[in-house]
Amino acid sequence: MTKKYKILSNYIKDLSSETPNVESFLFTKDNISKYELDIDINSKPLKNKLIEINTTLKFQDKTRAEKKSYFELVYATIIKLSQETTEKKDLQKIILCDVQNEVFPKLEKILINMLSDSGYSGVKFEKKVDFNKLFNEKFN
Fold this sequence. Notes:
By secondary structure, the protein is α+β, with helices and mostly antiparallel strands. The chain has a single domain (5-139), classed as SecB-like (Bacterial Protein-export protein SecB, Roll). The chain has helices at residues 22-31, 88-117, 131-139, and strands at 5-18, 36-45, 50-60, 70-81. A 4-stranded antiparallel β-sheet has the order 1-4-3-2, covered by helices on one side. The longest helix is centred in the C-terminal third of the chain and has 30 residues, at 88-117. The protein starts with a strand and ends with a helix.
């Protein structure tokens, strides 16, 4: 089966590591295992069968703790669709599943490197994101 799109380019659109003070740093260092990874994907059509896909990763403490840090990565991927791609479900699968499966390992590495460079070494994401399963649960 041939791919119905081609990745033309991708880049970091926004990268943020926010730790307001020493107390927050120390608290985060002790509690980073409680942080959760959220993924948001949106897209906007460009001209000539081009689509910009923005994948946002947020790694944050969702408790009401006052002393905490916040980490966010927005990664843009520009794809060109092949001529035969017109079905809405095909487009959704390409944007939410196929492209994500291709770019997510790089995003995960960027986020882990940012966390390490921000003083939080040793963070690993135990659960692998299964974009195929998430897509099928949402649309089937």
